[in-house]
Design goal:
Blueprint lengths: L1 E6 L2 E6 L2 E5 L11 E3 L2 E4 L9 E3 L10 H4 L8 E4 L2 H9 L5 E4 L4 E4 L2 E6 L10 E5 L4 E4 L7 H10 L4 E6 L19 H13 L2 E6 L4 E3 L7 H4 L4 H11 L4 E2 L6 E4 L7 E4 L3 E5 L26 H25 L5 H7 L4 E6 L4 E8 L5 E5 L8 E6 H8 L9 E5 L13 H4 L26
Parallel strand pairs: 3-6, 6-7, 7-8, 12-13, 13-14, 14-16, 20-23
Antiparallel strand pairs: 1-2, 1-17, 2-3, 4-15, 5-19, 9-10, 10-11, 11-12, 17-18, 20-21, 21-22, 23-24
């Protein structure tokens, strides 16, 4: 069995004449906010034919329409049970699409594919176990793995797992919003090491997570990717010295055959052109760039000021009060229960304004205040023209949000809880959950 890395989560798995392509990503992902890292070139002319495609989940760095458009539409495609993903794949012209339940199997020649589960709730996702007479390989992709999953994989492979491409990076994607949450995620990292060890693979390869942010989001690279592949391999070898662990770059692959030591080879399908992984080196204290409103829609500032005042001081508290009265749960209910002091900061083209939630009962009340970071449990920062464009139905991207919380309890109050708890997420059991939540979410779909 041979597995060739094309970059990020894109693998070609070959067992005899059978060839399977996973998470095709030949270019930068769909929204062009990410680049594969290390930087590489995929040699499309060398890829040859495939017998099937596996798509692990619908995130754009795993489901890339431009890459799928380069493939034979007659190929069978295997996905997790996700009707939205299935619809998107069919819309690309693929008619032979099979959704696999956890532990469901498919057979391609002498190769058996077994879908492995992911213990997360935000997206349907699967890993894939490849079983062939000569070797076994488990590609975990981004999935959240537990001990029971590892033990079931070992049972299915008769206790012999040759290669594991494992989740290794406890991403801090929430740092793109909660930018002051910069503590190293030690507990999540140790859990990933534990699961890699629990898999009992003869060879462990840190897989997936081979991306970096580009353009206006590039400054988040120092916050989002806390662990390098080299660190994971070194830490794993210290923990489990009797097993092998390697770093693979795009254009490299691993060959496995039962009874023989795994070997590394150079594949013709891709080439690494620049090891730019240093651009994602964890440095969470790197200063954030100043937030500005360049007002591309050219709203008059007076209109923006009046519009945001109306949205935040009148519309938002009224809507939030109604939802709480209806028994809606979630972060807003949590903040109400803790009587949190919540500030909404708005960046205008020529000024900043701060609005504070001053009362939770009998109804929410908001008023403009002088900026005072010390007085708020949480501060959410918005760009005025973005919020206003959405509110009046003008074409615009979703508003960007920056959030921060106090690390000190108010006099007589409670310590503000972390973003994961606020969002109702068990951070210990995630790899790349972003903990995103915006107070203005309650206005979704409303128009001025």
């Amino acid at each position: 069995m041979r597995a060739s890395l094309l970059g990020h989560a894109c693998l070609i798995v070959e067992a005899g004449p059978t060839r399977v392509l996973t998470d095709p990503l030949f270019f930068a992902p769909g929204e062009r906010t990410l680049d594969p890292c290390p930087k590489r070139i995929v040699h499309l002319e060398a890829l040859g034919r495939f017998d099937a495609i596996v798509i692990s989940h619908r995130h754009l760095d795993h489901f890339d329409g431009e890459s799928l458009d380069r493939l034979d539409r007659r190929l069978p495609v295997y996905t997790p049970c996700d009707p939205e993903l299935t619809t998107m794949v069919r819309a690309r012209g693929f008619s032979d699409v099979t959704q696999l339940d956890p532990w469901e199997e498919a057979t391609l020649g002498a190769l058996t594919l077994v879908a492995t589960p992911s213990h997360r709730g935000d997206v349907a996702e699967m890993g894939m176990l490849f079983i062939a007479p000569e070797a076994n390989l488990w590609n975990q992709v981004d999935t959240v793995v537990d001990q029971a999953t590892c033990l079931r994989v070992l049972k299915r492979t008769d206790g012999t797992l040759d290669v594991v491409f494992c989740a290794y990076n406890p991403l801090l994607e929430h740092a793109t919003m909660w930018y002051a949450e910069t503590d190293f995620p030690q507990a999540r990292y140790e859990r990933l090491l534990e699961m890699a060890s629990c898999s009992e693979g003869r060879l462990v390869v840190p897989g997936s997570f081979g991306l970096r942010m580009v353009g206006k989001h590039a400054h988040f690279n120092q916050r989002c990717y806390p662990v390098s592949r080299e660190r994971f391999v070194a830490d794993f070898k210290r923990l489990v010295p009797e097993r092998e662990a390697w770093v693979l770059n795009p254009g490299e692959g691993v060959a496995a055959e039962r009874g023989k030591a795994p070997s590394k080879f150079t594949t013709p399908y891709a080439s690494t052109v620049d090891d730019d992984t240093h651009l994602t080196r964890f440095a969470p204290d790197t200063p954030m760039p100043e937030v500005v409103d360049d007002n591309p829609t050219r709203f008059p500032e007076r209109e923006l000021t009046r519009g945001l005042e109306h949205i935040i001081v009148r519309v938002w508290p009224q809507r939030a009060t109604e939802l709480l009265a209806q028994g809606v749960g979630g972060p807003l209910r949590t903040l109400q229960a803790r009587r949190a002091v919540l500030d909404i900061e708005v960046v205008f083209p020529s000024a900043h304004r701060r609005y504070r939630l001053t009362s939770w009962a009998p109804r929410l009340e908001v008023q403009e205040v002088v900026a005072d970071d010390e007085g708020a449990d949480y501060v959410f920062t918005y760009i005025a023209s973005q919020v206003y464009a959405v509110a009046v139905g003008r074409p615009y991207q979703a508003p960007e949000i920056l959030a921060r919380r106090s690390r000190a309890a108010r006099a007589g109050g409670l310590l503000p809880i972390d973003p994961a708890r606020l969002a109702g997420v068990d951070a210990y059991s995630t790899t790349d959950e972003n903990f995103g939540w915006s107070p203005l979410d309650v206005l979704e779909g409303m128009r001025l």
